[in-house]
Amino acid sequence: MSRHLDDLEMAVGHQFGDRDLLRRAVSHRSWIAESSDEISNERLEFLGDAMLGWVVADLVYSDFEDWDEGRLTDLRKSVVNASALAEVARGIQLGDHLLLGNGEDAAGGRDKESILSDALEAVIGAVYVDAGSKRAFEVVKHLIGPRLSEAPSQLDRLDQKSTLQELLAARGRRSPTYVLESKGPDHDKEFTATVIVDD
After folding, report:
1. pLDDT at res. 198
2. Residue 180, C-beta contacts closer than 8 angstroms, at least 6 positions apart
3. Catalytic residue among 45, 49, 104, 130
4. Is 38 designated active site?
5. pLDDT of res. 93
6. Of 45, 118, 121, 130, which one is the catalytic site residue?
7. Sign of the alpha-carbon torsion through 107, 47, 7, 57
8. How far apart are CA 11 and CA 159, in angstroms?
9. Is residue 87 annotated as part of the catalytic site, yes or no?
């Protein structure tokens, strides 16, 4: 496990003083159910989510001085969402380091968007607990910064819902209605969204 964590520390860009924090950050609840470990990564995920939101808000506020609140929010959302975070996690091979239960592992959990994004947030939370806010800021900037610099050129493609509403309004059509359905167990829900225009 030690070598395993060495590789992850290098990818994250932080050497942990308390290695147990990093181990906890990669411990999915399915692992806890099947092992002698007692604490999953969920509390660290909660903390990392807050850190991530703060750091990215600070970065976009500082780097895009002439942007209004709406555009800053769109920019932040473009890099702080499950899909974008899962891509970052894949980039550092976080899935290879996850501790998963046998069932979750067999079901492809190492590449599941929700598990990867949650684990990345947990790792960020672990950095914060291990070394404080300044170091967590640096790690988030290291991991998310490259995506943030590319995001402005892609913003117009990220918010399909607003684009559709603007298109319908320009054509004199009514606003769409949305029907959201879900199926599957709570830990692995599958969602289907239906957009209805003019019935």
Report:
1. 87
2. 191, 192, 193, 194
3. 49
4. no
5. 96
6. 121
7. positive
8. 31
9. no
Q: Half-sphere exposure of residue 198, counting CA atoms within 13 Å on the CB side?
A: 6
Range of the domain at 77: 2-158
Identify whether residues 153 and 168 lie together within a single domain. Answer: no
Q: Walk along the chain (199 residues) and give the pLDDT tens digit of each residue.
A: 566 789 999 999 999 999 999 999 999 999 999 999 889 999 999 999 999 999 999 999 998 888 889 888 888 888 899 989 999 999 999 999 999 999 999 999 999 999 999 999 999 999 999 999 999 999 999 999 888 877 776 665 556 776 777 788 888 888 888 888 888 887 778 888 899 888 8
Q: Are residues 107 and 194 in the same domain?
A: no
Tell me how far apart the alpha carbons of residues 124 and 130 are, in angstroms, rounded to a whole number. Answer: 10
Q: Which helix (H) or strand (E) holds 119?
A: helix 113-131
Instruction: Tally Cβ neighbours within 10 Å of residue 183.
Output: 9
Q: Do 183 and 151 share a structural domain?
A: no
Say whether both 61 and 38 belong to one domain: yes
Distance CA 48, CA 137 (A): 11
Q: What does the alpha-carbon distance between residue 66 and residue 165 come to, in Å, rounded to a whole number? A: 26
